[in-house]
């Protein structure tokens, strides 16, 4: 190989490396396309959730194709209105992004209090009858739960009248009590119950949080509130 050929080879290699570096730098500058943080979500009637757009500084526009099912604000805040499905369309950077929203109906427990349990059982579903109290005591009442242990969704029913005597809810997010739902902020739940004429009284403080009683006409609603988040962990009615 001559000296001139060697120099030409080195120059060619240098040019190739330089071109490769430019290509890699250009690839690194490619901007990611905007996207949604969720492509689908499930809400219950009355719930709210925020849909966020990632990968853009442009202000997006939001629109629901069925506002009777769910509405959406300019900031992407979705409000579930009634059971059904809809699509939230988001326009940003000349693109249209979509999120499918499924809204499920809620069961308002206050409609069934002091009434025949069969109606509530039909609405709630997946309930198993027990002859004894899972907590250990024995009475003439029936105990019905959606789980083997006393936690979950659990009711006590008068054996003769078939009326509800006691209810506790640990896991049914679609069951509300005077509008109060699991994982709701305590401040919001308190306003709902006070507005309906309930009187508030602290029932106790525990390692996991606090218990608050709301009483009216001889009946009590107990809200168990987590210590850190101040959200409704479970509730009871008796």
Task: Please explain how this structure is put together.
It is a single chain. With 238 residues, the chain is an alpha+beta fold. The protein folds into two domains: 35-104, Immunoglobulin-like; 107-237, no CATH class. The protein has three helices and 19 strands. An eight-stranded antiparallel beta sheet has the order 11-12-13-14-19-18-17-16, covered by helices on one side. A four-stranded mixed beta sheet has the order 2-9-8-5, with no helix packed on it. It has a three-stranded antiparallel beta sheet with strand order 3-7-6, with no helix packed on it. A hairpin with a 7-residue loop joins β12 (142-145) and β13. The longest helix has 26 residues, at 3-28. The protein starts with a helix and ends with a strand. The mean pLDDT is 82.
Mean pLDDT: 82
Number of strands: 19
The portion of residues assigned to helices is: 10-25%
Strand order of the largest sheet: 11-12-13-14-19-18-17-16
How would the global form be characterised?
A: elongated
Main β-sheet: number of strands, strand sense, barrel status? 8 strands, antiparallel
List keywords for this structure.
single chain, 238 residues, alpha+beta, Immunoglobulin-like, 8-stranded antiparallel sheet, 4-stranded mixed sheet, 18% helix, 39% strand, elongated
């Amino acid at each position: 190989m001559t000296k001139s050929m060697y120099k030409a080879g080195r120059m060619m290699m240098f040019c190739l490396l330089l071109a490769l570096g430019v290509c890699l730098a250009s690839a690194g500058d490619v901007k990611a396309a905007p996207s949604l943080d969720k492509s689908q979500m499930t809400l219950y009637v009355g719930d709210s959730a925020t849909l966020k757009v990632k990968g853009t500084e442009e202000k997006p526009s939001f629109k629901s194709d069925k506002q009777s099912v769910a509405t959406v604000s300019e900031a992407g805040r979705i409000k579930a209105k009634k059971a059904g499905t809809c699509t939230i369309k988001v326009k940003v950077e000349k693109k249209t992004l979509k999120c499918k929203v499924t809204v499920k109906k809620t069961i308002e427990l206050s409609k069934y209090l002091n009434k025949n349990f069969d109606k509530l059982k039909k609405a709630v579903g997946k309930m198993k009858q027990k002859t004894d109290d899972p907590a250990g005591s024995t009475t003439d009442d029936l105990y019905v739960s959606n789980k083997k242990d006393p936690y979950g969704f659990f009711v006590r029913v008068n054996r003769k009248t078939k009326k509800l005597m006691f209810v506790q809810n640990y896991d049914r997010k679609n069951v509300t009590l005077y509008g109060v739902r699991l994982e709701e902020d305590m401040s919001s739940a308190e306003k709902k119950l006070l507005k309906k004429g309930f009187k508030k009284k602290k029932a106790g403080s525990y390692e996991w949080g606090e218990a608050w009683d709301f009483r009216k006409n001889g009946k009590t609603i107990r809200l168990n509130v987590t210590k850190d988040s101040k959200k409704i962990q479970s509730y009871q009615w008796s």
